[in-house]
């Protein structure tokens, strides 16, 4: 071996010895480990960003699907009335030409368009009818001389626990009925050259704090909102409830009894949570809306001696984890009938 090789070997040994005692190798390994960890974190970050994007897309897709479902439900009701019209064709019984829900975000343009229509003579009828007057046919009696029999017949078909507003042109260019989400408290009958939309606008713009009870067997929602768009606080209560049994005989009766016990247990849980929510509320509740399974909701509140005015809303009150506001949008929508 040459002297040059000996020197190189000695130098390598010294470098190795220096590295071990100086901690260089340890630092290099630590750096490699950190770089590997950093790479893993970058991969996780990209995966999380992708998941977040997918979640946003999923929520957007769900909201679009809900809108289409609501449109489909309205379409079904419209077709139901059209079917009824065909069945009653021989009796000359009329039906509505359109039934639809107007969401809170879409109602302002609708009102503005109605208010913009004017006539040179007093040919526009505006009638605000309370629920009590609907039961007694009071307003309809006053309108007998101004409305045709077909229109009066259709007004009797409107099912509402809040009353309705009629916008009617005697030339039948405008024949609309709006059912608001909250009760009409004062009646009004006006015949003029334009429609009086001010009371309806005030009713819909009224500031109020409401409590919502949306019940289903095994899953219910309670919440309080002060602006009608989002819940200030809400809670979903879940319980284990057996699915419905389709078989007959003793087995079915026993299964149904166990299911009823599960539902009763769920009702107790919801009632307890609702009591706590109302007791802890720092502001007065103006109204409580019951939706979903109305019978179950009624059973829950019947034993609570609630002094808050109760309103029932027959809406699609499905509880969505990422969008509980969909229930509020349905509750505060108006129903439109075209006569």
UniProtKB/TrEMBL annotation:
Signal peptide: none
Residue ranges of every copy of the Actinobacteria/chloroflexi VLRF1 release factor domain listed in the record: 210-304
Taxonomy, superkingdom: Archaea
Keywords, sorted A to Z: Coiled coil
Pfam families: acVLRF1 (PF18859)
Coiled-coil region list: 24-89
UniProt protein name: Peptide chain release factor-like protein
Biological source species: Methanococcoides seepicolus
